[in-house]
Amino acid sequence: MNRREYLKKTMGGAALLGAAGLFNPASAESLYEIKLTDELGRYTLADLPYAPDALEPHIDAQTMQLHHGRHHQGYVNGINNALDKLAEARESGDYSLVKHWSREISFHGGGHYLHTLFWTVMSPNGGGEPTNQTLRQHIDRSFGSFEKFRAHFLAASNAVEGSGWGVLAWEPVGQRLIIHQVERQSDLSTWSNIPLLMVDVWEHAYYLRYQNRRGEYTQAFMNVVDWDEVARRLDAALRFG
Ligand code: MN3
After folding, report:
1. Of 92, 107, 112, 217, which is most buried with the most CB atoms under 10 A?
2. CATH number of domain containing 108
3. How do residues 194-216 score in pLDDT, each as one tens digit?
């Protein structure tokens, strides 16, 4: 399937998300098969794909409950609210706050998108190294070895200034894997890139158990990475890109 056919096939139930124009096709092969919206196109919060305590001891149940139920829900509410306010602005013709609400779309939309993926790239059966051959080959080609990837990914994630994410992404233009520090939820990302693996390094993601020891948390995160899901996303990205 070429890109145009793919878009045609998947744009039926698509939901545009944020300034990057990411979309949420319903195809089983899709990159975005987790549901981000309801039938009316309103953004919604899906249930966690496992119990809140499933990732213990690496990520504690209370953090998971607060992170999913409060923080992620807040991003869902935030993007819906921003869209409502912009609809009101179009009705009234008063665009005095357009800059604010446009930023809110990027911030909350980025948060909704990254958190939705974040829950799926962790698993109680995760950790270790990827076994998928395609993923291994691309990691070797882009970073030299899995060990070098791991050290680079942890260093980048630990060094994010303030609040943000470490993200492993497929870069379709260069046909390679790349590691980003995504500050806040949207800064420093690249338009065409497709996120494959992401670690949330906002303090709310680790403070209850790890306090300010972000490095301990990111190492623990590596013990719950679902490499099969990362490989599945790379496979979909290769077909898409
Ligand atoms: Mn978070």
Report:
1. 112
2. 1.10.287.990
3. 999 999 999 999 999 999 999 99
